[in-house]
Amino acid sequence: MRAVAALRSELSKIFRMRITWASVAVVIVLAGLITWGSHHERDRIDVEHSLGDQFIVAGNSITALFIAHAVLQAATLMLIPLLVAVVVGGLVAGEKQTGTLRTMLARPVSRRAILLSKLAAAWTYTVTLTVAMGAFALGLGYVIFGWGDLVILRHGLTILEPGLGLTRLLMAYGLATAAMWAVASIALMLSVIFDNPMTAAGITVAFLMVSGIISLMPYFSSIEPHLLTSHLRLFNEVLAAKIDVPELMKSAMYIAGYIVIPVIVALGVFERRDVTC
């Protein structure tokens, strides 16, 4: 019961933070901008422009599913990882800085329960962020463009009929959320290690940026498959005409590792370190 009470407290705190709802507003604005841009440039966003004049596609290539897919691709590139890092990076370090962590640890609740409740709250926030973004993009896309096939211009042309397209898109959003859980786990670990929330958030973002840069350099091709940034967009695997299950499982295992290892480290540090000073 104490663990449940701790979880409720953490959920209440994270959803009372202004930055939580500001970040939701940011991804909604992004969805709106992409929808507006797609409507404004719909004559230029054409399958023919990407594949040449040998292809003729009947109907609209821009649909609600297309918008939801475009928003997902854009937001997961850097925006959502940044927002998750900023919010989650302050869950422990922020409370230590303000002195509220000392009071929390004086209660008859184990440190493990407190940290796991913060992790659960961080993951809930991540789900809220992606669901709000996807729902708004899908709804606004439907109002502006209507329903239709999911047209994907990546490594060629993939067209998924509406039912299958929606299913694959839901799977993609689920996988993207899981990938952001890995970012949240890293940010929480750094929030435990460092006293300043901006330091925790900054190092999380720096880690992602450095990993992304390294993955583009041929000198580091041997370690590129092991970097988190190489697997953050594993959702693209379910958006192909045929899902490459072995490759999807490989990326999922890496994401799981980047979730579990930081949580184990955070628990070890949080339970042993004097974080109340």
In short:
The protein has 277 residues and is mainly alpha-helical. The protein has helices at 2-14, 18-40, 47-51, 64-88, 93-98, 100-105, 111-145, 162-193, 197-215, 245-272, and strands at 150-153, 157-160.
The total beta strand count reads 2
Dominant shape: globular
Count structural domains.
1
Order of helix and strand elements from N to C terminus: HHHHHHHEEHHH
Strand content: under 5%
Specify Rg, calculated over alpha carbons. Answer: 21 Å
In DSSP terms (H or I, runs of 4 or more residues), the helix count works out at 10
Model description:
The protein is mainly α. It has one domain (2-272). The protein has 10 helices and 2 strands. It has helices at residues 2-14, 18-40, 47-51, 64-88, 93-98, 100-105, 111-145, 162-193, 197-215, 245-272; strands spanning 150-153, 157-160. It has a two-stranded antiparallel ribbon. It is globular and about 60 Å long.
